[in-house]
Amino acid sequence: MTPSANRSLSIALTGSGGAGVMTAGQTLLDAAAKAGFFGLMTRSTGPQIRGGEAAALIRLADHPVQSPGDRFDILLAIDFENLQRFAAELPLDADSLIVADEAAGEPPEFLVKSGAQIARLPIAKLAKSIPGARASMIALGALAALIGLPESALIEAVAASIGRKKPEALEASEKAIRLGAERAPQASVPRLNPPLGSGAARWSITGNEATGYGAIRGGVRFVGGYPITPATEILEYMASALPQCGGVLLQAEDELASINMVIGASYGGSPSLTATAGPGLSLMIESLGLAVAAEVPLVVVDVMRSGPSTGIATKSEQSDLNIAVYGLHGDAPHVVTAPLSVLDCLKTAQWSTHLAESLQTPVIMLSDQSLGQARIVVDRPDAVEFPTRRLVPAGPIEGYQRYASTENGVSPMALPGQEGGQYTADGLTHNAKGVPSSQAQDHIGQLDKRQRKLDAFDFGDYWADVEGEGELAILTWGSSSEPAREAIEAATAFGIKVKRVALRLVSPPQPERLAAALEGVKRVLVLEQSHSGQFWRYLRAFYDLPAGAQSIARPGPLPIRPAEILEQIRKWGTA
Amino acid sequence: MNDLSPAAVAFKPADYRSAVKPVWCPGCGDHSVLLATQRALAELQLPPEQVAVVSGIGCSSRLPAYLNTYGFHGVHGRALPVATGLKTARPDLTVLVASGDGDGFSIGGNHFLHACRRNVDLTYIVMDNRIYGMTKGQPSPTTEPDFDTAISPGGTGLSPFHPLVVALASGANFIARAFTGDVGGCTKMIVEAIKTPGFSFVHILSPCVTFRDDQQKAWKKLARGAMVEETDDPERAARRLMTDDGFNVGVLYRGKREPYRPRLTGGDPVEALEAEFAQ
């Protein structure tokens, strides 16, 4: 158990299809938020379209948390059907409590083996005693009583979600919550510390919503997209958000179309984005090369999932780094970014839009399922602004050269409608005017120009989060950054100081910045969620790491937990 | 432009021509499509900077660079999505799409169906020569089944694709055919296509003089004005197109579907979106 665990509680709600565990999980998180707690909820589901096994994995805390914990304090099982499939995802131990329905039958083997205390409650039976009540509400009432969450917060959360329009349903839920609380099993579980009032207004937001909103803040007003798990929620969010601020989303016939719609809209002057996952990114790659060559700004959000091929569509992995960095044919300078937490999806999406627009090149933002489909309760973040926008010719245009070779490589991009700015954007090698050319000087000149855009650009402090001091450092990226943070916090209890360097800018590499960040560091642990060590190999290619750098690289679908990182840190600390 | 007298604002066909020399073979039908496009834009007096011409890859797709309008020469088969994104984001522009039988009906076939269905206000000009010219003579979806090529010795044995029938079934709002032997006819069809709201499909028979030297003379004899009146009845149009031998030129269908036009009016401050996240 990490030392911070007593300030947070991890709860898993599981059940088979129709048991309503996702709704219950959302209600619990909302209630905790109303009572002043912070929280994180991730979803784990099977491949079924509807029904099948499902788990809502919730962490409540008196401080902001954006990483899964190491273990679960409580498992609330509405039934045991198919629960065995979650065995690897539900680390339980002798200090855990399992609350299960009386009628659920024999617990699966992994529950018994964990040594956890099992408390029985007649969940279904109690629900039947109240007309219109759901078993999940009985369970939530019991859970609230166990952990010290006020019933009133739970009732308020239910009212907010089902609305005041259905008084009968609300009344049934309220009765069920109270009855569940009354009949809560007697068991000793850690209770939540009373929250520390930060005074700040709170948000409840998913990573995919944060991505959508961040992109809109960055100026995105056109989205072309094709549904794909786990990115669809970005498209759904933006479909309703964009029209409120003069934007539009088109559902394309496939990813080949969505990326090209985005290219067309951006060519017309509208900052544009598409969101997809690995299979969709694979289809978009050819056109991303076009956007590089024609210098059309755009953002592709890849919400990564376990690959290759269809892989596990509902489970996270950081294994699209290679395709994002190296996937384009030819020499095609572009940018790859990654959000470092659920909330950071907002700023990273906004920043990615800023980079695309400023550099007139595609930006691939590598989010993942563990960030995108997680919901957090956090303090409302401070708004950030990035002032630079797309360079467009001002005033009357004469002798226009769309791809003029400039000092920083960025040349003014005329927008259709601007008189005198007419040019043909082209994926063919072209000269400064955009006229197709197979001349060596044009080819090399334009390759140089496009590379210069990235080389000359000042990516600023936002390239990475660099925190802490010490001779040990964890070097990581994307969604592995929050578990790393927790492990480092936990290490302080053992007197071990570890620096955290989490890259938000994956590509282009920033060797000088990293060298400065690792100044005085003797040992580096490189952390990522991929089978082949894609990040590790990438770093080895572009950066000088201290001798003895080590790699922790393992694939999904299981999340990287702070404890496994801490274990390595402690080995070092005692060495 | 302060002087708004007709003489000062009048655009001539030559005003739509860029300085770039076409790569097309002498005698290629695509030269006529270029000229017809210039004439159509001049007839409509569209300022060159208000027009964007989007294309994919292939001989026909080289067209945008030869015009003095805005142009986009993208990847193979994806011109329609580029144009759809552009027109949706910039409804003020006149957007034309130039394609060929390989680019438009083979690699880009799926986009053709969905562009017809979506009915965005675009003019889709497909120069059909029943051959891949740029890669030097492979069969396309419209090539005759017995046409012998290196990649299909003895012919493909496949039935040719019927683009006009597919366009009608997929929901295109305007369907016309023209032949490059008649530049005036091509011009007229392009003008009508631009004027008709929604997705307008102009199928242009554009002979290849290099890999299909059988076409030019034969098509001159075969191409003829359609003997029937233009219709807005999809059923009549369907019968007409199903019995069409591929050489009837003119407006073959003009529907009344409302084009897709997104509402780009919302003017809320971005921060208003935060309300839904607040606890």
Q: Any descriptors?
A:
heterodimer; A: 575 residues; alpha/beta; Pyruvate-ferredoxin Oxidoreductase, domain 3; Rossmann fold; seven-stranded mixed beta sheet; 19% strand; globular; disordered N terminus; B: 279 residues; eight-stranded mixed beta sheet; 9 helices; 8 strands
Written overview of the protein:
The complex is a heterodimer of chains A (575) and B (279). Chain A is α/β, with parallel strands linked by helices and 575 residues long. Chain A folds into 4 domains: 3-182, Pyruvate-ferredoxin oxidoreductase, PFOR, domain III (Pyruvate-ferredoxin Oxidoreductase, domain 3, 3-Layer(aba) Sandwich); 204-379, Rossmann fold (3-Layer(aba) Sandwich); 391-457, no CATH class; 461-574, Rossmann fold, CATH 3.40.50. Chain A contains 18 helices and 21 strands. Chain A has an 8-stranded mixed beta sheet. A 7-stranded mixed beta sheet of chain A has the order 9-8-10-11-13-12-19, with helices on both faces. The longest helix of chain A has 17 residues, at 278-294. The radius of gyration of chain A is 25 Å and the shape is globular. The model of chain A is unreliable at 1-5 (pLDDT under 50). In chain B, helix 2 (30-44) crosses helix 7 (183-195) and helix 4 crosses helix 5 (109-118). In chain B, strand 7 (224-225), helix 9 (234-242) and strand 8 (248-254) form a beta-alpha-beta unit. With 279 residues, chain B is an alpha/beta fold. An 8-stranded mixed beta sheet of chain B has the order 2-1-3-4-6-5-8-7, sandwiched between helices. The termini of chain B are far apart. Chain B has one domain: 3-Layer(aba) Sandwich (Rossmann fold), CATH 3.40.50.970. Chain B is globular, with a radius of gyration of 20 Å. Chain B has helices at residues 6-9, 30-44, 79-89, 101-107, 109-118, 163-170, 183-195, 215-222, 234-242, and strands spanning 51-55, 70-73, 94-100, 123-128, 174-179, 200-205, 224-225, 248-254. Chain B is built from 9 helices and 8 strands. Chains A and B meet through helix 1, strand 7, helix 7, helix 9 and helix 10 of A and strand 2, helix 3 and helix 5 of B. Strand 15 (424-426) of chain A pairs parallel with strand 2 (70-73) of chain B, so a sheet runs across the interface.
